[in-house]
Design brief:
Elements: H1 2-14, E1 30-39, E2 42-43, E3 51-52, E4 58-73, E5 76-77, E6 85-88, E7 93-98, E8 102-111, E9 142-149, E10 159-165, E11 175-187, E12 192-200, H2 201-205, E13 218-219, H3 224-230, H4 233-236, E14 237-242
Parallel strand pairs: 1-12, 10-13
Antiparallel strand pairs: 1-2, 1-7, 3-4, 4-5, 4-6, 4-8, 4-9, 8-11, 9-10, 12-14
């Protein structure tokens, strides 16, 4: 018994409870991630605010929702249960990802959902069809949804209705994104850092492609128009702050 007590003392001394084990990490060490949506350098307000596209078209927003998945920083990824995040106005969406202490230069994620999950049957959580982001068993999920109105829209009731999706071969719009930190991010044992990732709708309307509300007020099917709009996803996101 005396030898057993001595052995326990040695183990506690050399491997304290808060130490980082080789090949693992202390779950108190994490990165807190906030997603925030903006337009015209302001946080988006549904219905009550008027925004202007880079082409000078005025519009209001009544709905803005999109999926983020496969979040990764270094070798750290979210577990399966939290892999998918539904960003939905009006609330900022935030979550923690446990990380190993170290120095990081970038974070990556997928705007959208991997093809496998579009034909995996009824799912739960943020992938539940009740979240109003699912088309049909053939067309899968809407990955980005923007609704609103504009006097420039030639659709009925001047509506804007962009439901951007598609996962089959030449219809794929899920977009892998990598954002670099302006300065390397050093996360120490037991620390929680926080970053804010901003989605800028000004870039949605005009970056790789110029999207005019007058020409494309409605897109609700996979295809060429959806791919043209989705090409701008690569320019929409940036790291706004690190704390």
């Amino acid at each position: 018994m005396r030898y057993l007590s001595l052995l326990c003392f040695i183990l506690i001394f050399y491997f304290p409870a808060n130490s980082v084990a080789q090949g693992g990490h202390d779950t108190s060490t994490s990165l807190h991630i906030i997603f925030r949506n903006t337009a015209n350098q302001k946080k988006i307000v549904l219905r009550d605010s008027i925004y202007v596209t880079p082409a000078g078209e005025k519009y209001t927003i009544t709905k803005l929702k999109y999926y983020i998945s496969n979040i990764r920083i270094g070798e750290n990824i979210l577990d399966e249960a939290h892999n998918f995040q539904l960003i939905s106005e009006p609330a900022d969406v935030s979550f923690n990802i446990p990380v190993t202490p170290g120095i990081y230069t970038e974070i990556s994620f997928l705007l959208g959902i991997d093809s496998l999950y579009h034909c995996s049957g009824a799912q739960e959580g943020v992938l539940d069809p009740m979240n109003d982001m699912f088309w049909t068993w053939n067309s899968g999920y809407v990955m980005f949804k923007l609704e609103g109105s504009s006097e420039n829209s030639k659709a009925d009731k001047n509506r804007i209705e962009h439901h951007i999706g598609g996962y089959r071969n030449n219809q794929k719009i899920a977009t892998p994104l990598t954002l670099s930190f302006k300065e390397t991010l050093n996360i120490k044992i037991g620390e929680q850092k926080e970053i804010t990732i901003t989605a800028d709708l000004d870039q949605y309307w005009n970056s790789k492609n110029k999207i005019l509300i007058a020409e494309k007020p409605v897109c609700t099917l996979p295809g060429e128009i959806a791919r043209t709009i989705a090409a701008n996803f690569t320019m929409m996101f940036s790291i706004n702050s690190v704390q």
